[in-house]
Amino acid sequence: MNDLFRKIAHWTSEKVGSPWAFVVAVLIIVLWAITGPLFHFSDTWQLVINTGTTIITFLMVFLIQNMQNRDARAIHLKLDELIRAIDPARNALIDIEDMEDTELELLQKEFAKFRDQKIAEIKEQRDQA
Which domain holds residue 112? Predict the structure, then answer.
């Protein structure tokens, strides 16, 4: 089931993310707007586009979330591999996305200190030059 959903989500995201899908969507809206006078801009005429867009949006939310989750997982795994492969890197940062917020905040403060130190070094080097 998961593999089938993954394949469908991947295929759909490629097709829906294409320029042709956008053109088709615009054409559907234009066609719907043109038919307005034929249906006297009735409630049913408006309901057709509202229902259609709501259903498509509802389904696309799940597909987009699935693709974003897969992309994020792949990026995290690639970064974890880089951390593991580089000798001076801290292996404790592998799977950092699973840390609690307080731990992440501490790391963020630590990296901010590193950044501030580097900026100070650059300014000092520039002043000496």
Answer: 99-129
pLDDT of residue 1: 80
**Which two three-digit tokens encode residue 118?**
């580097």
Closest CA to 80 of 97, 100, 99, 105: 97
* Per-residue pLDDT at 33: 96
In order of 59, 79, 129, the CA distances from 74 in angstroms are 23, 9, 44
42-72, pLDDT tens digit by residue? 999 999 999 999 999 999 999 899 889 989 9
Q: Are residues 78 and 105 in the same domain?
A: no
- Give the other-Cβ count within 10 Å of 22's Cβ: 11
- Domains contained in the chain, number: 2
* pLDDT at 95 (0 to 100): 85
Q: What are the CB-based long-range contacts (under 8 Å, 24+) for 91-98?
A: 97/72
* CB contact at 8 A, 80 and 95: yes
